[in-house]
Amino acid sequence: MSQPRSAYCEQFRSLRTRILQSGERLQTRAIVVTSAGIAEGKTLTALNLAWLLAQTEGVRALIIDSDLRQPCATDYLGIDASVGLSEVLGGQLSLDEAIVRLDPAGLYLLPGGKPRDDVAELLSGPSYARLLTDVRRMFDYIIIDAPPLGIFTDANVLMTKADGALLVVRAGKTRYGVLDKLLEQIPKDRLMGVVLNRSEEQQPDSSSYYYQHRYYSKERRLSETKQVKKEAQEEEVVVLS
């Protein structure tokens, strides 16, 4: 979000393009973002993806912090929202009251609210299903930040209610054996792909493109100025002779 011209942001734009294409073909609108374990990057992936979806013309995107064991989306965004999904499912708060409008226009957040332990039971119940039905009528895309798949069953429960799922893995941390085991658990018709986070592979730096563009434009202007001066001098010589 803070570096829209970076190579990292371009990777997220590529991910957004694939999501939009899938949305058109398969009507994939509610997407679960989960990870193998903790500190893999699932919440940052969910936030950046939702942010870029909201920047698409005519798109309204909602992030649902469904990691009710340890809600943290508000911490990443630096906003104060002590109530959210937990209170909505518990009947203490209405959905409209809990949703927070973010900047840019078109981006909204349903915070996690108070942490709780009965997450799997709560997400499996009819209240969460009704909530998803309601937000589908309100938004074009719903990005669901789920607890780690390798630790809790919550993500599996959420996948059965969503249209698709992204699995975030961290380079140099997630083990192949763990990943293979997790991929077996995910329904094949739900898995949209795997996001490799913190890869050390060198990507083209888009900032250098903008610099080169400005440099080229400056050089071209200087060249054109020199050419004009040269033609003016030649014309002056012709007049004097």
Summarize the structure.
The chain has about 240 residues and is of the alpha/beta class. The protein is built from ten helices and seven strands. It has two domains: about 190 residues, Rossmann fold (3-Layer(aba) Sandwich), CATH 3.40.50.300; about 35 residues.
What this model shows, in words?
- Helices cover 50% and strands 15% of the residues.
- It is of the alpha/beta class.
- Strands 3-4-2-5-1-6-7 form a seven-stranded mixed sheet, with helices on both faces.
- α9 (176-185) links the parallel β6 (164-170) and β7 (191-197).
- α1 crosses α2 (42-55).
- The longest helix has 35 residues, at 206-240.
- The protein is globular and about 85 Å long.
